[in-house]
Each structure stands twice: as C-alpha cells, then as structure tokens.
Design goal:
Blueprint lengths: L18 H12 L2 H13 L3 H29 L3 H8 L6 H33 L2 H4 L3 H11 L3 H18 L3 H28 L5 H8 L8 H15 L5 H6 L8 H29 L9 H13 L3 H35 L3 H21 L8 E2 L2 E2 H29 L1 H8 L9 H28 L1
Antiparallel strand pairs: 1-2
Helix pairs in contact: 1-9, 1-13, 1-15, 2-11, 2-13, 2-15, 3-4, 3-11, 3-13, 3-17, 3-19, 4-5, 5-8, 5-15, 5-16, 5-17, 7-14, 8-15, 8-16, 9-13, 9-15, 10-13, 14-15, 15-16, 16-17, 17-19
Length: 457
C-alpha cells in the first residue's frame, strides 16, 4: 500500500476549512428527512421505545464502524466515491462499488427532491396559515390532492433542486460548509423549541412513555429490519456520501472523534424529533403508526388545534426544509465529485449536468404518484421503486462492500494509520482489533441476514 500522502489527486482539491465545518456538514448529511420524517413514523409503526433501543444497538455495533470505514476510504484516497476504490486498489474490480454508490445517490436524490418539494409547498401553506383556517375533510385530502397533481409538485421539486444546486455549485468550503455552519444550529434550535412546546401539552406524557418505555411484546423480525435500515438511511451509509465528505477532511483531523460525534448528533436529533412529534400525536389522540403521512397528513391537524399552531407550523416546515437541504447537498456532492473527476468538468458545469439529470428523473417520480400512476415496475411506482432499491438494496450492498474492503483489503496497518493519523493519536490497540472484528465478521453477517430477509419479503 502506498503512503497516504501519495493518494492525493492532481490539482487543487477543495476541502473543509475547520473541524467544526466538517462536523456540521457531516451531521447535516446524516440529519435529514431520515430523522424528521422517517424516524418518528418508524417508531410509531414498530412499538416505540423497543425500536429505539434496537436502533441504538445497531448504530453502535454497525453504524459507527461502517461510518469510520467510509471515512478511512475517503480520507486515505482523497478522491470521489468511484475514484477512491480505484486509487486504493488499482487494477482490481473494487471500482464497481463506486459506480453503485453513484447510482444509489442518483436514485435517492430523484425521489428525495420530490419530498423536499413537498416540504416547500407545505411551508407555503403554513405561511398562509392554511392549517389553522382549514379543518376536517380539507386537511384530510390536502396531501393526496397535492401529491397526485401534476404541476405544483413539479414546480416545488424544481425549486428544491435549484436551492440544492445553488449551495453545491459554490464548492465545499464556500458552499456546503458555510451553509451547514449557519443552518445546522438553526435547525437544531427550531426542533428543540418545538419539542419543548410539544412536551408541555396536556396528555403529551403518553407520547414520552411511548418513546422511552420499551414494549418488547411488539418486537418482530420487521422491527430489526426497520431499525437496521433506518441506521443505514439516517447515517447515509453505503451511498458514498461519507466517502466523498471524508475525502475533503484534512490529514490532521481526528476521524474517530468526527465519526462518533456525527453518529451522536444524528441520534440525538432523531430523539429530539421524536419528542417534537410524538407527545403532540398522543395529546390529540392520533395514531402514532400513521406511516409516511405522519408529517404531511397528521401534523397539520395538530397545528390547527394548537395555541399559536400556525406559527409553530411555519417553524416546523422551515426545519423540515433545512433538514432536507442539508442532506440533499451531500447526496448531490457525491454525484458532482464523480462527474468532475471522471469527466474533467468544471464544478459549475458538473452541477448543471447533474441537476438537469436528477430533475428529469424526479419529474418521473412525482408524476408516478398521479398523472402516470399506471406506470409501474415490479408492482411499484417509480417513486416507490427508487426509494426501495436505494434504501433496501444498494445502500446495503454498498455497506457490505465497504466493510469487506476496509476489513480485508486494507487491513490493520492502514486502518491504524488513518485512525491514529500516522501514530500521532493515542488510539488503543484493542479498539482497532474490535473495529476490525466487527468489520470482518459481525457487520457482513448482519447485512447479509437483512438482505436475505428483504428478498424473502
């Protein structure tokens, strides 16, 4: 294996300007709709606190080791997701993993930008105080009428992608890092404020009990599948996002500390999001297992009944939009970095090409929910297919390749070198051995078991 410094790509490569910038950007990548939109309804569907405990175990035993592995690949190679494998294992077939990551991110951003567009539309509705003016049937049908229509979702999808591209086009330090430094603290404060308000509602205590008192009688195989899937989705594992961001991390940064802080920030935010939503759900007697519609269908009813609910709705959907943007810029950056390195494009050109491509696929996803809902593949709409394939197939395969590559191809010497910054950081030997054991044996077995169950389902 060549010395790490020899992996530097020719030319001047952008990088993060500070450790705090790295942390908020990585946290932004992890903290997204996976926490604010997906986590609360998965908790609702899978028995509450028992699901959370299983999820935390998966984050510690699998999520963090895989996160560190992607960090190692990214920083050691100083290259995009595709070029990273080719740089660290020249002449082999590992580069195929990079292609899977690009495909995965393309599918994710195609449907994710549609959901981000929903957030924009609902922010407009909140600003107009629609949730406090309307009640009953209009609120019940508001989401289905909007999401299955043709032009309005497409316009919002376009606006969301334009916002994402506007941040990415400015680069890593001047675009992604600057945006994350300002917006991540704002996002955290908004959700924390909503959580405090939600926890003070009469009857909200039942939501707290639901979140933090485990009911093991409701745990099934599906609970474990959902918990591991959420760990992958929330931490952006197996998609090349952490590899790409890791390639912008300077050689003197402590990636073990950054990885642990990223996982902690993601988990804490998910729990706060649960506290923002579940107490209110119970306070107003709504089922916690409403599914993906919890945010867009159920919460508007709650906002309509809350004192100052119209104002709270504005803050909530601002938070939802910020969460979506902090993640979408990391997904787009994976694809943009690939296009820049593989096709030698300038960043501006690469962003435009990627944005137009994702826009076209996103239009298909949006229209598949309404105007062309008859167009289905494997019994799924284009939107659902992209969601399923990216989250349940490609991210799992990508994660499996990552752990096999770092655990077996790179080996202990390279892992030790990256985690200790060439021996400068006092990382104990037992931790390296434990990490490699998890990567070589535990993580591959767990991922394969989950994949088998997914196929059987």
């Amino acid at each position: 294996m060549k010395n790490a410094s020899s992996h530097k790509q020719p030319g001047v490569r952008d990088s993060f300007g500070s450790s705090f910038g790295v942390l908020v950007a990585l946290a932004g990548s992890a903290v997204g709709l996976g926490n604010l939109w997906r986590f609360p309804y998965l908790v609702g569907q899978n028995g509450g606190a028992a699901f959370i405990l299983i999820y935390l175990v998966f984050v510690c035993l699998l999520g963090l080791p895989i996160l560190l592995s992607e960090f190692i690949i990214g920083r050691r190679s100083q290259a995009s997701a595709r070029a990273a494998y080719k740089t660290l294992a020249p002449g082999g077939s590992w580069g195929f993993a990079g292609i899977l990551a690009i495909v995965c991110c393309t599918l994710i951003l195609s449907f994710y930008s549609v959901v981000g567009g929903w957030g924009i539309d609902y922010l407009f509705k909140a600003v107009r105080f629609d949730f406090t003016r309307e009640s009953g049937a209009p609120l019940d049908t508001m989401f289905s009428t909007f999401s299955t229509s043709t032009w309005r979702p497409l316009i919002c999808h376009t606006i969301f992608l334009a916002l994402t591209a506007g941040i990415v086009i400015s680069g890593v330090k001047n675009g992604i890092e600057k945006f994350s430094k300002v917006m991540m603290p704002v996002l955290f404060l908004i959700i924390l404020g909503i959580a405090i308000r939600s926890l003070t509602l009469p009857g909200g205590g039942a939501g707290v009990d639901y979140l933090f008192k485990p009911d093991w009688s409701k745990v099934t195989t599906d609970t474990f599948l959902a918990a591991l899937g959420q760990a992958f989705f929330s931490l952006s594992l197996g998609s090349g996002m952490v590899i790409t961001y890791g390639s912008y991390v300077k050689k003197d940064a402590n990636i073990l500390s950054l990885g642990a802080q990223t996982a902690l920030a993601d988990t804490v935010f998910a729990l706060i999001a649960g506290c923002a939503i579940m107490p209110a759900v119970f306070a107003f007697g709504i089922s916690p297992g409403e599914g993906p519609g919890l945010v867009f269908i159920t919460l508007p009813h709650i906002f309509g009944q809350l004192p100052l609910g119209g104002v709270i709705a504005i803050f909530f959907f601002v938070a939802l939009l910020l969460a979506a943007l902090t993640s979408s810029i990391s997904v787009m950056e994976v694809i943009v970095a690939f296009v820049i390195e593989e096709f030698k494009m300038k960043r501006r050109t690469a962003v435009i090409v990627v944005t137009l491509s994702i826009w076209a696929l996103g239009c298909l996803c949006s229209l598949s929910l309404g105007a062309v809902d008859g167009l289905k593949l494997f019994g799924k709409t284009i939107f659902d297919l992209f969601d399923f394939v990216s989250a349940n197939v490609l991210m799992l395969i990508g994660g499996l390749i990552v752990v096999l590559f770092v655990g077996w191809k790179l080996g202990k010497k390279d892992v030790h070198d990256e985690l200790t910054n060439g021996g400068k950081l006092p990382i104990p030997e037992w931790f390296i051995d434990l990490l490699l054991f998890l990567l070589r044996f535990v993580a591959p077995a767990a991922i394969l078991i989950i994949m088998i169950f997914q196929l059987l389902k």
